[in-house]
Structures are given as structure tokens and as C-alpha cells.
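Bug #77: duplicate submission created two jobs. Keeping one. Sequence:
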Amino acid sequence: MNPMLYCAAPTARIPSLGHLTLRLRTRGASTAEVDRLHSLDAQAVGEIHDRYYAVVYRYARFRLNDDQLAEDLTSDVFVRLIEALQLGKGPRTTIQGWLLGTTANLVADHYRRAYRHPQAEITEQLPANGPQPDDLAARSELGRHLQQALTALTPDQQDV
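Kept job's structure:
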């Protein structure tokens, strides 16, 4: 199949369509680029990464609203691309379509995981359920002073 079709521009009149005819222009990876990618050519993989990283990142950033998470997910998309290519799978016609489809699936997986296993943020100041460490240290010090005071008493005073 030929490269992805993406745009229509008016060119000439055709009676059946009224006032316009559509001329199709192509954009995206050519068949040769897809073939080079499937041969795991390092230069082709690098070119695909350079060309589509920003597109995938923008899409992930828009859907997640988190810069760091979008970067991680974008990296995962390209790791999956290489893994799919090693298994003889991966894009057949439109590399961008495959990458964005994979991104959409990873975003959906992220939201599914977040829904199933919600995580609460840990605040800096957690309420303490028991005595504070400084209270425990003061008690220990007080106990030590009491023991010293008791040993200083005479045996008759200690029995009272």
C-alpha cells in the first residue's frame, strides 16, 4: 500500500462533483522507509525516532497532562516499536498511525491501572498516632534520673 493520504486540495471542475475535484497529496513514511525499519536498520530506527518523538510526546502530554509521565510513556512507545519489529510485527503502512495507536493504548492502560489501584499522595506532615520521638527520649531520661535517685537512698528510705 502507498504512503498515508492526508490532504485534499481543490484543483479543477468536474460536472459530477459540481465545482471541485480532489487532488490527493501524500505524507509520511514511504514503503522503502517501512521496509528499512523492518530490517532493523539502526539509522532508519533513529530517523523514525527523531521524526516522530515530538508528535508522540505531544499526544501523550495532551492526554496525560503530566510532562514526566508523557516522557516515560513516549519512551515506552519506541521500546515497543523495536520489540514489535524484532518479532516481525510493527507498522506495515503508516508508522505515525502505529505509533499514535500504541500511545493511545498505553494511555488507556495507564488510566485503567490508576482506576484499579488508586494511589494517594503522601504529604510531608503525617499525623503521628503514638508518642513523638522527643517525648520518648524525655521519658527515658526521666526514668534514668529516677533510678539514680532511688539508688542514692538508704535501704530504709527505699522501703517506704
